[in-house]
Amino acid sequence: QVQLVESGGGLVQAGGSLRLSCAASGSIFSINVMAWYRQTPGKPRELVAVITSSGSTNYADSVKGRFTISRDNAKNTVHLQMNSLKPEDTAVYYCNADIRGKFSSLRTYWGQGSQVTVSS
Fold first, then answer.
1. Largest Cα–Cα distance of the chain, in whole Å?
2. Measuring CA to CA, which residue among 56, 95, 103, 89 is closest to residue 77?
3. How far is 91 from 102, CA to CA, in rounded Å?
4. Cβ–Cβ < 8 Å for 24, 3
5. Model confidence over 34-85: pLDDT tens digits?
């Protein structure tokens, strides 16, 4: 089955950097949009960054200039490079992707979530 597996979360001091990765695996035919969301307990999930299959990107205003989303199509992987981290960035980060399987139609998949904690 198609699945998204995240890695790279952890604890970092304010001003530091962290890189999240999310790899899609399984019987994949193609991957359309890939994105990163984040969620804090009691708050709605927030779109952080998105990247299209052609490489176009868009960011939430709160992370613009600090975060960079990228993808490696050969490895079916999306990354989120997070620089100049702030305590407000603390959240569980989820990758998201619209994937067409070799034997299935297009659908949305979610990663398991990665805890990112930024200390002050």
1. 48
2. 95
3. 33
4. yes
5. 999 999 998 999 999 999 999 999 999 999 999 999 999 999 999 999 999 9
